[in-house]
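Posting for a labmate who doesn't have an account.
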Amino acid sequence: MAKEIGEIKNRICNMVLQKMDFSDELSEEEVLKSVDDIITSLPERESMSLEEILDLRKEVYNSIKKYDVIQEYLDDETVSEIMINGVEAIFVERGGTLFKTDKNFSSKEKLEDVIQQMVGSCNRRVNEAYPIADARLSTGERINVVLAPVALNGPIVTIRRFPKSPITMERLIELGALGEDAAFFLQRLVRARYNIFISGGTGTGKTTFLNALSMYIPPDERIITIEDSAELQLLGATNLVRLETRNKNTEGCSPIEIRDLIKSALRMRPDRVIVGEVRGAEAVDMLQAMNTGHDGSLSTGHANSSTDMISRLETMVLCGMDIPLYAVRSQIAGGIDIMIHLTRLRDKRRVVSEISEVEGIKDGEVMLNCLYRFEGGRLIPVGELKNTGKLKGFEANGL
C-alpha cells in the first residue's frame, strides 16, 4: 500500500504543477485547494481511509512547497539529526537513538531539487564542480551536503537540528552535564574575561555549551561571532555582530573564509570575539586575537581530550604559519586560559568531562592544570586555579 500511496503522491504532484504556473509564488491555501480538488477526483480515494487521505494531502504539499519526505522530521522537535544516504535511506536520531525511517525520495532528481532548495536559501551553491557544501536553513538547522563524484552512493545530506530555544546553563545542570559549583566557577571566569576553548567529539554539545556560556557575558559588551554556518543563539546580547563565511561560487564570487572574518572583526572594536569552530589555519588568527587584548573570547574545536586539542591546535597553527613549534606553543599558552572538554557517555548523556587551566609552558610543552574531572558519575573539583590575575581584578572591581 505504501508503494501505491507513493505513486499516487507523485501523480498528484505532477498534476498540481501542470495545473499551476510559478508554484513557488502560490500561497499555502492555493496549493492545498488545488491538491484537495485533485484528490477528490481520484478513483483511488474511495478505498483510502481519512487518515491516509490527510497524510497524502500533507505529503503532496510538503513535496511541492517544502522539503518533501523529510519535512515531517524537520517539524518534529524530538528529532535531533537527519541523515540522508542517497534516495532510499533516511535515518533520524531521536532521544540519542539512531534508526532508519520508512521514507524515501521518489527519485534522485527530487532529492537534488530539495538539496538545491536548502543550500539556495542561504545563498550557497553545490554541484559536481563544488560537490561539498555547508549551509543552514532559515529555521537554524545546520546542513552538510556531499554530491557525486565524491559521494559514491548518491547525494548525502546531514542535517543537525538545534533546540528552538537555546539550552541554558540551568538546564544543563538539570540534565547532569555539570554541577552548580562548576557552573558558578565558569560564570566567574566568563565575566572575568578568561579566554575559554571548548573541545569535544562530534555530537557532544559544543555549540550548545558555548551558547550557555555566552549567557554569562554582560549585556553591554560588543560581541562578534564568526562561523562557517551561523548556529549560535546568543540571548541577551544587544550589541551583537554575526559574521558568516562565503563559499566560492560559479558566479565568480571569491570565498570569504574564517581567517578573513577574524581579521575584519578585530577592526570592529569588539569586546569579545566568538569563533564557532576552528578547523584549520584560522587557529592562527584566533590565537592572535586572544593574545592582543581581546580577552574573554570563546571558541570550540573537535578533539578526544583537552591534551589532544592542544596538539590539534599546534597542527592547525603550523598549517597557517611557518614558525617554530615553541613559538606556536607560546601562542597557545598565552592566548587560551581555560580548556573545557565535553564527552558523550554510553547512556547518550552529554557531560563536561574536564575543566583545565592552561598553566603555561614547561620543558617545551603546554601544561594543563586540571581543575574539575568527571569521576563516579559527576564532575568533581580536583585542583585549584593558579592564574588568578583576571579573577582578582574582576572581583576587586566588584563586577
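Reply:
Got it, the C-alpha cells are right above this. The longest strand covers residues 350-362.
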